[in-house]
Amino acid sequence: MTDSPLSVAATQKPAKLADHNLVSEAAIAPGIIYEKRPAKRADGSVAEGLVNAWVTLDNPTQLNALTLDMMKSATIALRAASLSRNVVCIVLTGTGSTSFCTGGNVAELAEYYAGNPQEFRQYMRLFMDLVSTILAADKPTICRVNGMRLGGSQEIGMACDFSIAQDMARFGQAGPKHGSAPIAGATDFLPVMIGVENAMNAGVLCQPFSAHKAYRLGMISDIAPAMKVDGKFVANPLVVTDRMVDDMGRFVFGESKSGDALKAGKDAMAKGEVDLSQLDAKVEALCATLLETFPECTLKTIEELRKPKLDAWNRNKEGSRAWMALNMMTEARAGFRAFNRGTKETGREVDFVALRQALAQGAPWSPELTESLMPKKK
Known about the structure:
Mean pLDDT: 94
CATH class of the largest domain: Alpha Beta
Distance between the termini: 83 Å
Oligomer: single chain
CATH superfamily of the largest domain: 2-enoyl-CoA Hydratase, Chain A, domain 1
Number of strands: 13
Shape: globular
Number of domains: 2
Radius of gyration: 22 Å
């Protein structure tokens, strides 16, 4: 009788395996949940001795926004998962059903880093190391989009090899509306993933779009229904989910509904509840599919397919970091503070027209100019 691979491994493995981690998993701080879940075959049975590593952004009171400590811990967790011999896939997600992540912690950005370019340069080193860790992972990475994926989190998500979203999720960039540019990954990845014109719309206009549109554009691999009405899953009631064209002949799958259709969608949502079981099933199915492949052949294929994103990323990241640091003295200083200090009543954006008018008159960036642009009661 032939020995099983497990019994052969037990007799042939070294007495002690080397530890290639820079720091211990114990260094993972609150704000990141790192867990290993049993890997399962397609039939649901557990593959003994194998796991999938789940890295969860856990800051629900701030929509899972990344604090400084969370960025450090996420990088440690992702590297630990990458180096773990028994990990099949890495799943990156967020706590809850509202938000995957909304990017950087605005309070930190507005009150500590705004006006401190030398400090923000170091902050961006941590963020860019996080993105680079995802792009260099020795395991397939899956972004489980449990809710909105906006701003810097869009860049983290696009660095992953696969993305599967619950269909109530929203996607988008925020940079030019809030004093920055989406150059920590988005301007590198978007043209590769969805084409230059769509990248212009997504990156410059800062208009969030649905998971259905993200799927249509090719930004994500799959979508799963998340809204249950009367016990049954329904597609996102707020967007067009039929393959329709409008009266101009434009394809509108994934676009927001309007008028009576929007009202009916909101009424349906009021009666429904969010259930992410279908999202989890699709993530598990993808992990099961990847389980049944040669690990090194899979990794080599992934590494080759990452190259278009990596080429742009490695070409631009250091110059982007330097520009973003210097921008903390001007537009970011105003934009982040406006967002952090604004309210629902005042809005969270600067007076863009007043800014352009002042700059047209040759006004220098000064503390007085910054304060004059802050949101005010109408």
